[in-house]
Amino acid sequence: MTIADIRTQLLSVPFVEPPQTGFLTLGDIDLLLVEVERHDGVIGTGYLHPLAGGMRTLDMCIHEMFKPLLIGADADNVEELWQKMWQATFIQGRMGITVMAQSALDIALWDLKGRAAGKPLWQLWGGKGDPLPIYGSGCFRGLGHDGMIKKAQRYVAQGFTAIKMQVAHTFNHDEDVANVRDMRAALGDDIEIMVDVNQGWTADEAISVGRRLDDYRLAWLEEPVMADDFEGYHRIANAIATPVVGGENHFTHHDLKPFFASGKIPILQPDVMRGGYTELRVIAEHAQRAGLTIAPHVFPELSVQLNAAIPNPSWLEYMGWHDHLWVEPVPVENGFITPPKRPGHGLNFKPELLRDHPYRD
């Protein structure tokens, strides 16, 4: 059952509700689609939504560095193929473009394996198809004080029991504290509030502001400093009462080793675009041994397969970004997401998207 062909396509699909991050303008969902086809005609699909460019570079990486490596290989040995891609690009990669490109291929390979077996990935990995908790994200700082609260209230009205808002970048410290204070007052005590800094502070700022935010009973403070400032992460975690979390901008379990060793970052948020399913499963294993849980970054339609099959799942993150892309979206109701029973990851792009939305530089 060897790999016969690898095909890619670049798309630019408009957002239904463009995100107002406050520091990054996103008008379209720029997608890199990957199809991996076996000689018997079974096809698996992967995709990347890297947010901030690099689309043609990622596409070239797949065709120049990985396609020659994978054509003719046994498609069933997904973990072995991940290692083969990792080792082949060790000089050029270990983070960034090469890992993201191989992540799209890894997602497609797992999808192919699930479709060939006639099983959803969560079942292939020995998991359960029970509904999983998901929080309403995307209460973006660019919406302003009132807009963040209004969006959070919309989530609560839909049955969500947790939301995530943003601080830093466009607000000063006093404004950030006031925004969190007013969000808590608006939502009451029964709704979990996560706060995302998006790497916007120094460690000293995070300690100072974080201590003020402790009063509002937050579920977590996310990415307070740059991803590679492990010392800063640990100083903040030691200094404030609110749990400190992160991981979306880390690549593979190698990049997360300081967090496994310390145990001070109780919830890790790996991104399936930065390691694929294979690495997220490895990260979950390391996290389990360290007593940590997993709340993957965005892409719940993919990550629901992982969280349904690991012993240490935490939250999944919902922004509704990709719901309009699928023939059958993954259902999200009353603050829970249910893993699809369709084979593979269970996602099929609407055919008209591939026809009507070519990539725009």
Specify Rg, calculated over alpha carbons.
20 Å
Encode the helix/strand succession as letters. EEEHHHHEHEHEHEHEHHEHEHEEEH
Tell me the number of helical segments per DSSP (H or I, 4 or more residues long): 13
Largest β sheet strand count, sense and barrel closure: 8 strands, mixed
Oligomer: single chain
- By helix and strand content, what is the structural category? alpha/beta
Instruction: Give the beta-strand count.
Output: 13
**Could you name the ranges where pLDDT drops below 50 across 5 or more consecutive residues?**
none
Average pLDDT over all residues: 97
Shape descriptor = globular
Helix content range of the residues, please? 25-40%
Report strand %.
15-25%
Distance between the termini: 37 Å
Describe the structure in your own words.
39% of the residues lie in helices and 17% in strands. The protein is of the alpha/beta class and 361 residues long. Strands 4, 5, 6, 7, 8, 11, 12 and 13 form an eight-stranded mixed β-sheet that branches. A three-stranded antiparallel β-sheet has the order 1-2-3. The chain has a two-stranded parallel ribbon with strand order 9-10. The longest helix is centred in the first third of the chain and has 22 residues. The model has no long low-confidence stretch (mean pLDDT 97).
